[in-house]
Specification:
The protein is mainly alpha-helical. It has helices at 4-20, 22-32, 37-66, 68-80, 85-88, 90-99, 106-117, 120-152, 154-175, 195-198, 211-240, 246-274, 277-297, 301-314, 317-328, 334-362, 365-372, 384-388, 394-410, 432-435, 437-440, 449-461. α3 packs antiparallel against α16 (334-362), α8 packs parallel to α22 (449-461) and α11 packs parallel to α16 (334-362). It is globular and about 55 Å long. The two termini are 37 Å apart.
Length: 462
Amino acid sequence: KPSVYHAVVVIFLEFFAWGLLTTPMLTVLHQTFPQHTFLMNGLIHGVKGLLSFLSAPLIGALSDVWGRKSFLLLTVFFTCAPIPLMKISPWWYFAVISMSGVFAVTFSVIFAYVADITQEHERITAYGLVSATFAASLVTSPAIGAYLSETYGDTLVVILATAIALLDICFILVAVPESLPEKMRPASWGAPISWEQADPFASLRKVGQDSTVLLICITVFLSYLPEAGQYSSFFLYLRQVIRFTSETVAAFIAVVGILSILAQTVVLGILMRSIGNKNTILLGLGFQILQLAWYGFGSQPWMMWAAGAVAAMSSITFPAISAIVSRNADPDQQGVVQGMITGIRGLCNGLGPALYGFVFYLFHVENLSVLQNMYPPTNLSASVPLQSAIIPGPPFLFGACSVLLSLLVALFIPEHNALNLRPGSYKKHNNGAQSHLHSSQGGTCEGKEPLLEDSSCTFYTR
């Protein structure tokens, strides 16, 4: 019988395997592209993000027809396929990572799987369990990978990650039952898929239909664009420019992750009750501006740690945005508006990394990284070239300016206002299988997937 625990195991194994590779991947990236490390990193993650944005609705629609298990197997297999290539051929490794974005939508299928087997009143708890498992895997695995890499070498880490990925695939094949009964599907293996269901831009076209929705979407775009870029490049920046060791990067991920979880649970609840939803959004954006500016101007390791603590506090923004949408949208429009927000975030996952990579390249940060190796730092001090740079991290400063614009836009979001996006612009499907489509299309689900995905998973993107 399908259960939430099947979804939990699949998610944990996949992201634990990738978390182990945090340290080896940074090393291989720099060795493969020594002159254009940041630019190539941005392009690789940018292509992957754009492909995921384009493919998520189609995979979600197909899983409504063909069942979840086959697409769980497909997404996990192709998402983990690049892992063994890290030691076989780094060039192929990064090429396959970029192309794997077409299938890198495991979360969408997992949330649809959970929606199939839970009642609506159980869904919030179930999504929380899945998201918490994701968080736990990424808090622990980078530290384990860094230790094994330092003690036994990168090859062992790659072999272990490959074995865990294979275990995940075998678990899906052998132990995971299908969650979508045959009778719930429109037709087995052959039902037509409409272009509207598979169109990744469908939800974005509705953004201008309500002024409040437009303000919220602009706020999300301007604030999440730099965050997506930061996610793709920040650990590389810590290694190559700030000169963090592998162990320190792993510790940074763990500490900031734990602080973010505390911020999004304890602190977020207190703020929502004391200062209100809108002010919580503004406060989170304020923390994000401070964090990005600190990353941009900071040249000492202690500055990165301090900014990381601020980054944990800034992770309250997106849960608060999802909450204000949930409170103001009618029940039959929750999926529409949340889908717009999720679509914009998906678009940013492609544009943000490419933008950061280009800005790093434009300001010759690669050259600064090379000079760093000529001046070994003493104690905790950064080396001479980094201290002489006026802006050590230009993309983060650009990001701070973007979030400042986002803050100015957010000032005009009303605290209480009914969002008006009437049907005609959005089709409601009557059969059970089609209702799950919104769960699988990158986050437009009635079970509040975007809210939980934002609140529990944002910590790692910081």
